[in-house]
Specification:
Blueprint (H helix, E strand, L loop, with lengths): L3 E5 L4 E8 L2 E4 L9 E2 L2 E3 L5 E3 L1 H4 L9 E2 L14 H4 L5 E4 L5 E5 L4 E3 L1 H20 L5 E6 L5 H13 L3 E7 H8 L8 E8 L4 E9 L2 E10 L4 H20 L7 H17 L5 E12 L2 E10 H7 L1 H6 L1 H10 L9 E5 L6 H11 L12 H13 L5
Parallel strand pairs: 1-11, 11-12, 13-18
Antiparallel strand pairs: 1-2, 2-3, 2-4, 5-6, 5-7, 8-9, 9-10, 13-14, 14-15, 16-17
Helix pairs in contact: 3-4, 5-12, 6-7
InterPro entries: ATPase_NBD, Heat_shock_70_CS, Hsp_70_fam
Pfam family, one: HSP70
Protein name: Heat shock protein 70
């Protein structure tokens, strides 16, 4: 059999990894990045864009840019009334109560599975190019709280993308596999997963290589994007005070602000100050206006204090549901790029009283675990 890849199909970003020479490694996409935004877009001329290039034009082409599709996969319209309000594209319901995503550029409707399949197809295609063989089998991860319908829909998305999905595994289980925690005896693990769009906490028990999910908790609307948005809103109100210009309605400006805010957030995880510099952000009668702003880590933490507080409750709930207190947790695993934020790290340490495990890149840990599982199924790993 050929190579089996492991895929972390995320709400905002996705990653593909494979076993090479007995070690799991992440495969960069055609653009050279190790993570691929889970975004699909259609241009006015009907071209399909997937990944980075789709994300870069999201604000300018909101009706035909499909993001966060994972929130709709395997769900009926009646279950996702809140989510429907939060996306910029049009979501419709067919006669069976199923969700359809309307693409005005092509004047046709897609299911959530078909949209997710485009992301999977790109990941598998780029992996195939790198490995020099066609990829036809994969292990795909899903959140621990996904129900049967959501798991089946994820499998269907794989099938539409031309992949035989050998197994669907839980994201916290995959993260634990990446750390080799399946080799431990009777340990209790807490997985703290703060992704781009969602926040999940899971408590797992491992013994004899078998994982049992004891509890899961989370906040389906808390993630890195919210941290970016806090910076965007601050920049908008600041700019309005200074120039009396409201950039809220200017899509081009908003796209640039969003990208600059994400970059500043990332910088503030390693630096104490970041500079946001956007020349020619808009023009008034007085001429072109530039946005120049410094943001310190302290200011960022102050802007995001409400978000940081929201991360506390699910951890406490997960412990309560597992009937454990924090001293009983043997390992803390961090997943998701947003766990690099220093304030989040110190929050985890404060609640659980121990340093989290961070030797594997948090963006890639789930895909690496999926690749380990894929290697087991392909007979490459004992």
């Amino acid at each position: 059999m050929g190579k089996v890849v492991g895929i972390d199909l995320g709400t905002t970003n996705s990653v593909v990894a494979v076993m090479e020479g007995g070690k799991p490694s992440v495969i960069a996409n055609a653009e050279g990045f190790r993570t691929t935004p889970s975004v699909v877009a259609y241009t006015k001329t009907g071209d399909r864009l997937v990944g980075q290039i789709a994300k870069r034009q999201a604000v300018i082409n909101p009706e035909n840019t499909f993001y966060s599709v994972k929130r709709f996969i395997g769900r009926k319209s009646s279950e996702v009334s809140e989510e429907l309000k939060q996306v910029s594209y049009i979501v419709k319901t067919d006669n069976n109560g199923n969700i359809k995503l309307e693409c005005s550029a092509l004047s046709k409707d897609f299911s959530a599975e078909e949209m997710s399949a485009e992301v999977l197809r790109k990941l598998a295609g780029d992996a195939g190019t790198y490995l020099g063989e066609t990829i036809s089998q994969a292990v795909i991860t899903v959140p621990a709280y996904f129900n049967d319908s959501q798991r089946q829909a994820t499998k269907d998305a794989g099938r539409i993308a031309g992949l035989e999905v050998l197994r669907i595994i839980n994201e916290p289980t995959a993260a634990s596999l990446a750390y080799g925690l399946d080799k431990k005896n009777n340990e209790t693990i807490l997985v703290f997963d703060l992704g781009g769009g969602t926040f999940d906490v899971s408590v797992l028990e491992v013994g004899d290589g078998v994982f049992e999910v004891l509890s899961t908790s989370g906040d389906t609307h808390l993630g890195g994007d919210d941290f970016d948005d806090k910076i965007v809103q601050w920049l908008l109100s600041d700019f309005k005070k200074a120039t009396n210009v409201d950039l809220q309605k200017d899509r081009q400006a908003l796209q640039r602000l969003t990208e600059a805010s994400e970059k500043a957030k990332v910088e503030l995880s390693s630096l104490t100050e970041s500079e946001i510099n956007l020349p020619f952000i808009t023009a008034t009668d007085a001429g072109p206006q530039h946005l120049e702003q410094k943001i310190s880590r302290a200011k960022f933490e102050e802007l995001c204090s409400s978000l940081i507080d929201r991360a506390r409750i699910p951890v406490e709930n997960a412990l309560k549901d597992a009937k454990l207190d924090s001293s009983k947790i043997d390992e803390v695993v961090l997943v998701g790029g947003s766990t690099r934020i220093p304030a989040i790290k110190s929050l985890v340490k404060k609640i659980l009283g121990k340093d989290p495990n961070q030797t594997v890149n948090p963006d890639e840990v789930v895909a690496i675990g999926a690749a380990v599982q894929a290697g087991v199924l392909a007979g490459e790993v004992k």
